[in-house]
Amino acid sequence: MDEETGRLSRSEARGVRYARELEGHLGWLDSFTGAALGVLAVASGIYTYLGVSSLLDDTGAMSFFAAIAYSVAVSVGIFVFWSYMMRLLPAVRSAAARMGLFLSMIAGSLAIVAMSSWLNAAALAGAAAVEQHMATTVQTYQSALETAHATAVASQSLELDVARVRQSFEDLSEQEATGQLSGFAGEGAVFRLLRQKSDELAALQIQIAEQEPLVDRAFSEGNAILSRMRALTVEPGAVEPRSVLFSEEAVRLAGVITQLRQLSVAPLVVRAANDLSRSVVLPELDGSTITIQEGQSATMNSVLTVLGQRAETLRQAAEQVIALPPPPDTTYTPISTADAVILYAANFVPSWAGAIAIDLLPAVLVFIVAITQAAIRSARERAATEDLLTLAELRAAVRALREVEDSLDRDGPAPKAETEGRRLAPVEGGRQSAP
Questions:
Q1: φ, ψ of residue 263 in degrees (nearest 5)
Q2: What is the reported pTM?
């Protein structure tokens, strides 16, 4: 401003016009900002009500009024909080005040997310989150079923090892019958020992073979249950009744998996392999001469050595099956929509973003108003107060001045010097008021 003439410079005049233009925009926007905040608060309250309703087990009148009361409290809290922020944060000028209100806004935003946004997310994506939980459970159960079946099939493959060992003892017994082992033909003590172990292995082979149909039946039943569980996951309709049926099917499938684990014959083969070499009933030597008996004894010792080796091989094969990783322990636990949304939050980022945005969108408006107010103050800071008055404000000031003068005239004539001094007193900015 030119101090001698009291006139604004061209840049200052542009700044004043710019500030008045921004004030006009803010005035127009302020006319419906309160209504917009109310709509956002009500919308958040509605979704909060839906989220709270999904958490309450009781469906009576008390639960209804409790959900209504909570949602109304959330709506009022959101409206009041953002109204405070939108009015106060742009108006303060000191850095300490701005930082304090900014921290208050962060604390309030966290409180809104804690009391409302997660419930909004539950209302937006709660059913889909529960279905996601069911689908994940199906995958876990399928993995457990396949692992249990693979272990059972691997144990059934031990039948080939048992058959091979049994066949080797049968071949040795035939060789002994023709005299190729001990050198003395006939079905003597060595022959009976070999037949004894061959019969034990044949009985074990029959037991293993009898388990195979049971394994196939259990695996087929498990797959059928999994199919029903998948259908319940994607079936249209309310998720709560489907979750109940899903739980029942999960219990049945857990029983099938346990049955498959029990059908594994690997522990049975391990016990049989231990008994094969340790529980040996040696037949009496029946050779007619000492020479024949000595030959039978030497052959029997060789057979026992081979028996121990074959039993060890069979035991190691069974222990390899036992060492296979067991199926994971899986238990389906029904969860609420709110818990499901939190548990599978990474899968529902858009829903979480929408739930949080509807509550925290006014924060953007607060920053917009704060930036605009700062621009207005910056544009006006170089102009004097009287230069910022509009024509309407000048007319109001003149009218008020005249009313004051009229009031003084009615109270009585003022001293001449005082009157002249008042009329000739200079106003701020270097100009004198008109007489």
A1: -80, -5
A2: 0.64
